[in-house]
Amino acid sequence: MIQELQEQGYTYKETKYLNFRPEAANKYFPYHDCVLFKGTLNLGRDILRTSWIPGAYMDEKNLRCSTYYTYFGQYLLNNKYFILSLGELVRRRAEIIEYFTSDGDLFVRPDSNMKSFRAGVFNLNILNTVQSLGSELNRDETTLVLVSAKRAMTKEWRFFVYKNQIITGSLYLVGEERVDETIRRGYLDNYLSEVLKQVTWYPEALYSIDICESEGELYLLELGSFSCAAEYGCDLSLMVEAGAKAAQQDWENVND
Predict the structure, then answer these.
(1) Residue 117 near residue 228, CB atoms below 8 Å
(2) Percentage of residues in the chain with pLDDT exceeding 70?
C-alpha cells in the first residue's frame, strides 16, 4: 500500500494506535485536512475523532448486522437468524436450537463490526449459561449477537466497493487455506453487480463486501469497512485511486 501511495504521488504518515492522540492530530496533517486512514479498527475510531475529512470509512452503526441485514437479507448466507443479547440467547437457548434443528452447534457473531469477539460455531448445549458463554466470548450478558445455523463454506472472496460500483476483489480462502488471488471480472463480478443493482442502500461511500460459496451457491457473507478491512490480493492501485477520489469528493462537499 505504501509503495502504491508513493507511485501515485500521495503524501502519507505512519503511526501506531498507542502513539496516536486525536487532540494532537496536527502533528501528522493540518486540522480539517483531506485525510483517509487505512489500518486497525481501534486506531480508526481515534481517527474519526479528529477534524480530518473523511478521516476513515468505517461507519459503526451502518456496519452492524442489525442495520445492513435489513437491506441485504435475501442474499445473505445467514438469511435466517436471531439478533439478541447473550443473556437472551441463553434464556431462549432450547427454542433457538429447536428452530435451527441443531444438535447445539450454532454460528454466533457480534452484531457489531468492531470484532468484539471472534465469530464461529459454538455449542449451546455445552455453553448453556450466561457465565460459560460470556466467559468463552469474553463479553457480558448485554452484548448483542447474531445467531444462525452452522453452514459450510468452500470459498470466500473480498470486494471493495464505491457506492454500488465494484473497485476490485480478491479470493482469500479456499476451505481453510489462505489464497490471495485478484479477481478479474467474471461470474463473481457479475453476481455482486446484480446484487448491488437490486439493493440501492449502501453503508457509506466506500466499504467492503465478502462473498462466499456454500453448497455450490454464492451468498453475501458480510459487509465491512474500507479503512480497516484486509486487502488480500485486491488491486491496490485501484483502491488508492478510489479512496483518493471519494475522500476528495467528501472534503469538497464540506468545504464548498
Answers:
(1) no
(2) 100
* 144-149/81-85 β-pairing: antiparallel
Widest CA span in the chain: 59
pLDDT at 184: 86
Over residues 119-144, the mean pLDDT reads 95
**For residue 237, how many other CB atoms are within 10 A of its CB?**
12
**What is the Cα–Cα distance from 117 to 178, expressed in whole angstroms?**
21
Q: What is the pLDDT of residues 50-102, one digit of tens each?
A: 999 999 999 999 999 999 999 999 999 999 999 999 999 999 999 999 999 99
- Whether omega for the bond prior to residue 54 falls within 30 degrees of 0, making it cis, is yes
Give 216's DSSP letter.
Answer: T
256 pLDDT higher than 90:
no
Cβ contacts of 116-122, under 8 Å, gap ≥ 24:
116/143, 121/150
Looking at the DSSP bridge assignments, the partners of residue 209 are 159, 223
The DSSP output letter for 113 is S
User: In the chain, where does DSSP find H-type helix?
Assistant: 2-8, 41-47, 65-72, 86-91, 93-99, 130-137, 187-198, 236-255
Q: Record the cell numbers describing residue 111, joined without a space.
A: 452484531
